[in-house]
Amino acid sequence: MKVAVLDITGKDTGRKVELSNEVFGVEPNNHAIYLDVKQYLANQRQGTHKSKERAEIAGSTRKIKKQKGTGTARAGSIKSGVFRGGGRMFGPKPRNYSFKLNKNLKRLARKSALSIQANDKNIFVIEDFNFESPKTKNFVNVLKALELDSKKSLFILGESSANVYLSSRNLKGSKVVDASGLNTYSVLNANKVVISESSLEGIESNLSK
């Protein structure tokens, strides 16, 4: 699949690049995509949720009423979860939500995501670019030139650029990653995927293994 190379003003440079069919033209595997997205979202969870249990509540330890003869259920502590202000029964505890996936499955998921976007003609290739200083206005101008200012976009750079990343950080609908930070969720969550020329080789070499 051949794609025209654009510059940051949105103009065609007259050059074209070949997108590898091994990465951008595979049959999408929906289950691999599901597992990789599930892992990505699970890894975002902090897992610091915690509620106090009966033993952690401050309160009296005396028996609040006699064992028999009241006509109601027996009760030994005001800290019991059945009383207001008591500990929570079976409440959440800190835990790690992350889980492991096979490397080959993750590669398949990312190739599937890129192939879906390529098939829908949602992939742009642009010349490598950088900014002299981090300014949001500079990145907004690039988005406008590419007609992406009203769409969710993912920019994949060959090498991490602090100025480009910082210029995009305040923009809710845009995300900038380098080729090594590519993930299935970000690819599918974007309306358009913008790939820099220098990142193509890295993407294809990483996912063609």
UniProtKB/TrEMBL annotation:
Gene3D superfamilies: 3.40.1370.10. One of its GO terms (molecular function) is rRNA binding. One of its GO terms (biological process) is translation. The keyword Lyase does not apply. Pfam families: Ribosomal_L4. One of its GO terms (cellular component) is ribosome. Keywords: Ribonucleoprotein, Ribosomal protein, RNA-binding, rRNA-binding. Residues 45-77 are annotated as: Disordered. It comes from the Bacteria. SUPFAM superfamilies: Ribosomal protein L4. One of the primary rRNA binding proteins, this protein initially binds near the 5'-end of the 23S rRNA. It is important during the early stages of 50S assembly. It makes multiple contacts with different domains of the 23S rRNA in the assembled 50S subunit and ribosome. Forms part of the polypeptide exit tunnel. HAMAP family: Ribosomal_uL4_B. Part of the 50S ribosomal subunit. Belongs to the universal ribosomal protein uL4 family. This is Large ribosomal subunit protein uL4. It comes from Tenacibaculum adriaticum. The lineage of its organism: Bacteria, Pseudomonadati, Bacteroidota, Flavobacteriia, Flavobacteriales. The gene is rplD.
